[in-house]
Structures are given as structure tokens and as C-alpha cells.
Specification:
Domain GHMP kinase N-terminal: 116-174
Oligomer: single chain
GO molecular function: kinase activity
Protein name: Phosphomevalonate kinase
Number of strands: 15
Keywords: ATP-binding, Cytoplasm, Kinase, Lipid biosynthesis, Lipid metabolism, Magnesium, Nucleotide-binding, Transferase
Helix content: 25-40%
CATH architecture of the largest domain: 2-Layer Sandwich
Number of domains: 2
Organism: Salinisphaera dokdonensis CL-ES53
């Protein structure tokens, strides 16, 4: 394998389409300028190892054959799920077992004050690690092939859950419309629309929240189907709504209302008391608040038109304990940052 390969991939934010995307509706997502950094290096000692400081893992010895690694305590096994799935997918792509490798994963950008922000760190890890391992194995995968493999691995790590939208965003970057198991469509951000990410809690488990909604679907299939149908109906209009800021603001407000209805029925914890308070605060200043992604304690979104209302919204948020996360939207997708040269290479 190449002596050392470094790769990175961005985080993501769901803008519109949460939950409905799991049932085939399109979702609107953006990549953000927080990146996971992965380094893979040939192991001269012939043994696999993993260092991931943000997971509390330091030079964990995985043995000479990673597919036959030792069994660890349950908490470590949980942390290794994405690594195992990606390594397996990379071996399948290469058609042979991978050489023993030292792997370092840095996801520090995806947390603040020790709390995860809900920017899709595991999806970004899947994208960057898959790109690094396949590149080190001598493969030159296209962006669609990278997305397909990374999505498959990430989904396996989450026991089949997840739409793949977060991984697709990590691979392709930019602003995209994504429908499950299809290539995303690149979109342009409207100049008059401002979006802010706001901390709303201390993090939430996407599989747990999705699992509660699935339990609701099993318990009350007809009501669940109506709730998802409403979300899907709105999600179908997202790409068109971007053409007019006022249309998009109306859509965001309607989508949040539909998420609240779903959560009222499911009792999943998607929307919390703080979300409702922020929604009222932002609405009074001329903007729209909605949860992002699975919801819970992850970051929320504020949308507002540029101009006086933007200033009013920022002042209203500053007067509370709501914290705006400094993020830029439309970040570049997965890339090889170093493979024996100093130049970053954008995957095609």
C-alpha cells in the first residue's frame, strides 16, 4: 500500500426532508466546513491499530488480521462499528485482504465543549476512511463509487438504519437534493437566504430517535403513514422553493410544524421545549426555526431573509443563551489531502 494517505470529509446539516427521506422522499442537505481527518499508514509491525482521540481510543491493537480482531468490551465494540464496516467494504472493493494499517481518526471539529453537534461525524468518518483505505490499496474510485461503498458500510454499522443522505453529503459536498439510493443533484444556495446553526442541547442519538419513530409506525401504521405523507409532500417542493426566499421560509415553517405533529404522535423526543421557545423567538423577529436531522439535542436551524429581519433575529438570539455555531455551508466533499505529496486532491 502507499506509505501514508490522509483524507478528509465534511459534516452535514439536513435542511428539509428529515424522516420522510427514509421512505423515499427527497431531502435537502448541505455540507459544512467542519471536517473529519483520517490518516492511514502501512504498519511496519504487521498489526492493525486504531487511534481516535474523540472516541477515547489510543493505539488500540486490532491484531494482524483486522477481520479476526479481538473482542472488546461493549462500549469499545460500539465505537468500532463504523471502522469495521468500512474496512470490510474496502476489502470487498479491493478484492483482497488489506495490508495491516495504522489508522488515525480526528473528529474534534464535530463537538463543542465535549458535546457532539449533530453534524454527521460517523458519516464523515465513513466517507473519509473509505476514501483513504481504497486509495491506499491502489484504487481510484469515482465519487459515485465512493458514495455507494461508504453508504453501504455506514448503513451496516447502524444496523440498516439511515437514508445515506449524510454520507452522500460528506462525499459530494455542496448543497444537494438527495433521494435514497440515487445520485444527488447539486443545487445553488439563494443569495437572499441566511441560515444559522444554533446549539439546542447536548447531543442526541440518531438511531434511538429513528427507532422510536419506527416503533410508532408499528404501533399506529395509518397515523404514521399520514404524518410521513405530509412531510414527503413538503419535501418534494424543497428544490423549487429555493428559487424564492419567501417560499423557502414558508416551507421551513411548514416542515417544522409537520415534524412537531409527527413527534406529538410518536413521543420520540424529536422536538423539545427549547425548540418551541426558539421557534417563537425567531418567528417574532421575522425568521423561521426548525430542528435539523433527527432532532433531539443536536443543532437547530434558523432561516431568515437578508436585511433587517436578519439583524433582528441575530439580536433576539444574542439576548438569550442560544449559541450560534460558526459554520459555512456548501463545503467541499471528500478529498485526499496527502498521498505522498502536499497537494489536496478532490475526488471526481
Amino acid at each position: 500500500m502507499t506509505t501514508a494517505v490522509e483524507a478528509s470529509a465534511p459534516g452535514k446539516l439536513f435542511l428539509i426532508g428529515e424522516y420522510a427521506v427514509l421512505d423515499g422522499a427527497p431531502a435537502l442537505l448541505t455540507a459544512v466546513d467542519r471536517r473529519v481527518h483520517v490518516r492511514v499508514e502501512s504498519a511496519r509491525d504487521g498489526r492493525w491499530s486504531l487511534t481516535a482521540p474523540n472516541l477515547g481510543i489510543d493505539a488500540l491493537d486490532l491484531g494482524a488480521v483486522a477481520s479476526e480482531r479481538p473482542v472488546f468490551a461493549a462500549d469499545i465494540e460500539h465505537k468500532l462499528a463504523v471502522f469495521d464496516a468500512v474496512r470490510q467494504e474496502a476489502e470487498t472493493a479491493s478484492g483482497a485482504p488489506l495490508d495491516a494499517t495504522h489508522v488515525m481518526i480526528d473528529s474534534a471539529d464535530f463537538a463543542r465543549d465535549g458535546h457532539k453537534l449533530g453534524l454527521g461525524s460517523s458519516a464523515a468518518v465513513a466517507a473519509a476512511l473509505y476514501a483513504a483505505l481504497t486509495h491506499a490499496a491502489g484504487l481510484s474510485l469515482t465519487r459515485p463509487a465512493l458514495a455507494e461503498g461508504a453508504i453501504r458500510a455506514h448503513r451496516r454499522a447502524q444496523n440498516g438504519a439511515g437514508s445515506g443522505g449524510d454520507v452522500a453529503t460528506a462525499v459530494y459536498g455542496g448543497l444537494i437534493s438527495y433521494t435514497r439510493d440515487t445520485d444527488p443533484v447539486a443545487l445553488k444556495w439563494p443569495r437572499d437566504l441566511v441560515a444559522l446553526a444554533v446549539i439546542t442541547g447536548t447531543g442526541a442519538s440518531t438511531p434511538d430517535l429513528v427507532g422510536r419513530v419506527r416503533d410508532y409506525a408499528a404501533r399506529e401504521p395509518d397515523t404514521h403513514a399520514r404524518d410521513i405523507a405530509r412531510l414527503a409532500e413538503l419535501a418534494e417542493t424543497a428544490a423549487r422553493a429555493l428559487a424564492e426566499t419567501s417560499d423557502f421560509l414558508d416551507l421551513a415553517a411548514a416542515y417544522f410544524a409537520a415534524l412537531c405533529r409527527l413527534d406529538d404522535h410518536a413521543q420520540a423526543g424529536i422536538v423539545c421545549t427549547q425548540h418551541h421557545a426558539l421557534a417563537d423567538l425567531v418567528a417574532n423577529a421575522g425568521g423561521v426555526f426548525k430542528t435539523s436531522g433527527a432532532g433531539g439535542g443536536d443543532v437547530g436551524l434558523v432561516f431568515v431573509a437578508r436585511g433587517p429581519n436578519e439583524q433582528a433575529v441575530r439580536q433576539a438570539l444574542a439576548a438569550t443563551d442560544a449559541q450560534i455555531v460558526d459554520l459555512s455551508f456548501g463545503a467541499a466533499g471528500v478529498r485526499i489531502d496527502n498521498a505522498g505529496t502536499m497537494a489536496a486532491t478532490q475526488v471526481r
